[in-house]
């Protein structure tokens, strides 16, 4: 089976991790701060707070922004459930803004319309989470302008987008947001097995996220309510969690980051080849914006169902049975039973649902060979033929 995504571990990665295992701290040593600095320097942002997943990063980002009971968090319905769940963790309510039919990202026009309505009803969101689906940056300038006008905070879910650019700035620079979150799960662009990081230019947010990552405990006298009682002393000043990344993982992350640009460039070569070889098929291919550079985590094609005599399900099943590990990103979050239980209905976000009825994610990862890619294309051609 050719999977839709596959991580790559080099000998350099292995050697780095073994060195930590044999010679250094396993956790709370120098590797985590080193990894944070590596990613922050790469992005051109002041701070990175490393955690054990992007899900945890989203959670501490929401907490640091003060999201809580009575507040609203809005995100895209076309995302992994974690982009929405982080709001519920904080006791806030969650709502969605439908996608743009071309970019598949949260539509800024629909966002504006919904904000105007919400303002009338006195239920403006406190936090909006745009998701750079596939690695393709959202229209962040438009979203930031709305954030200014309506007074909400912005967390970019950039789980798909490390290595990408928005205009001249790297994704993660937080030019148009308060916080940007990355995932280092193995299917993503670079990996630490499990892992995530929250980037910010705001010193106070960075400090608060650092607290929430580790039990709400501080050893910084400046944050304490009274003088230290000795060298052992610490204070718990917030209710935090244990969301720490290990040094083994951080070392792997530092090593992987050295190849990030090459990895994304290779993804672009593969996507260019898909663009060419799939151009004549009854498919809508994923578009890439001219002013941005996608991280290209995913290459989803949409079946033009009125042009073919095979169902979406049948094409998907045929590909899987011919050894192509296609996938579908994502089941719209508002159609999940848990969210339906909160009152969301099928039909609420029609563009996301339409996408779900047509999309298939093709294999895309740096070590995908030209031969394997040709296999994918051939299998797809066969699968859409009745
Ligand atoms: C993978 C992913 C997450 C969660 O990442 P983890 O590191 O697995 O917690 C969140 N949002 C999006 C869009 C993702 O793709």
Q: Can you give the mean pLDDT?
A: 98
User: H/E series, N to C?
Assistant: HHEHEHEHEHEEEEEHEEHHEEEHHHEH
Tally of separate helices: 13
User: Oligomerization state of this entry?
Assistant: single chain
Cα-to-Cα separation, first versus last residue? 23 Å
Account of the 3D structure:
The chain has 13 helices and 15 strands. It has helices at residues 11-23, 31-43, 54-64, 82-89, 108-121, 140-150, 203-213, 247-257, 260-277, 312-321, 337-340, 350-358, 370-383, and strands spanning 47-51, 72-75, 93-96, 127-129, 153-157, 165-166, 169-170, 179-183, 196-200, 217-218, 235-236, 283-284, 292-293, 299-303, 359-362. The longest helix is centred in the C-terminal third of the chain and has 18 residues, at 260-277. It has two domains: 2-257, Type I PLP-dependent aspartate aminotransferase-like (Major domain) (Aspartate Aminotransferase, domain 2), CATH 3.40.640.10; 260-383, Aspartate Aminotransferase, domain 1. It is of the alpha/beta class and 386 residues long. Helix 6 links the parallel strand 4 and strand 5. It starts with 10 loop residues before the first helix and ends with a helix. The strands form four sheets. It has a seven-stranded mixed beta sheet, with helices on both faces. It has a three-stranded antiparallel beta sheet with strand order 7-6-13, with no helix packed on it. Strands 12-14-15 form a three-stranded antiparallel beta sheet. The mean pLDDT is 98. Pyridoxal-5'-phosphate binds next to helix 3 and helix 4. Pyridoxal-5'-phosphate is lined by residues 53-55, 79-80, 82-83, 131, 157, 159-160, 183, 185, 196.
